[in-house]
TrEMBL record:
This is Crystallin beta A1. The keyword Cell inner membrane does not apply. It comes from Varanus komodoensis. The gene is CRYBA1. It comes from the Eukaryota. The keyword Repeat applies. It holds the Pfam family Crystall.
Length: 204
């Protein structure tokens, strides 16, 4: 299948009338019941959908979550079409077919994205400031396959457990935790390890 990051590059023009717009469907390939969203949805069941099987992001960048109330595995949903769940799950390692809640990523700013990685938790140890996408942190000189803590100075970033933008995804924002992520437990409710080996900026 085509990774979501590649799909998002063939993006339609942004919708007029607001920075965020997403259309979701309860069947694969944009079939079945259809609903449009321009704001957060804490639970698809409350919004009138039992399940989401495909979606189109027309403008803005969005967080998708495995469970209601913004919990569980996270997915980044950038402009483009996602005909089946594989397109947003983004990794062969974790087959998560559910998408039960979602919200806009308000801080996404590709041009002004900046973050500092720290070797240890609480912003200790060796540090490295980055402003670009890195499919492998180790190949660029980061000392090991773990990151202890991170400061997000601008934009929103997707951090991945493995090189090549694979494995668990953690979406970190400059306007969440004041951009300070002192420990892996703050990366998301599904986070279980300090392991981060690739990072990229979220596209608006």
């Amino acid at each position: 299948f085509i990774p979501a990051a590649k799909m998002a590059q063939t993006n339609p023009q942004p919708a007029q009338g607001g920075p965020w717009k997403m259309t979701v469907y309860d069947q694969d390939n944009f079939q079945g019941k259809r609903m449009e969203f321009t704001a957060s949805c804490p639970g698809t069941a409350e919004c009138g959908l039992d399940t989401i099987r495909s979606l189109k992001v027309e403008s803005g960048a969005w967080f998708g979550y495995e469970h209601a109330n913004y919990c569980g595995q996270q997915f980044v949903l950038e402009r483009g079409e996602y005909p089946r769940w594989e397109a947003w799950s983004g990794s062969n390692a974790y087959h998560v077919e559910r998408l039960m809640s979602f919200r806009p990523i308000c801080s996404a700013n590709h041009k002004e994205s900046k973050m500092t990685l720290f070797e240890k938790e609480n912003f200790m140890g060796h540090q490295w400031e980055i402003q670009d996408d890195y499919p492998s942190l180790q190949a660029m000189g980061w000392r090991n396959n773990e990151v202890g803590s991170m400061k997000i100075h601008g934009g929103a970033w997707v951090c991945y457990q493995y090189p090549g933008y694979r494995g668990y995804q953690y979406i970190l924002e400059s306007d969440h935790h004041a951009g300070d992520y002192k420990h892996w437990r703050e990366w998301g409710s599904h986070a279980q390890t300090f392991q981060v080996q690739s990072v990229r900026r979220v596209q608006q």
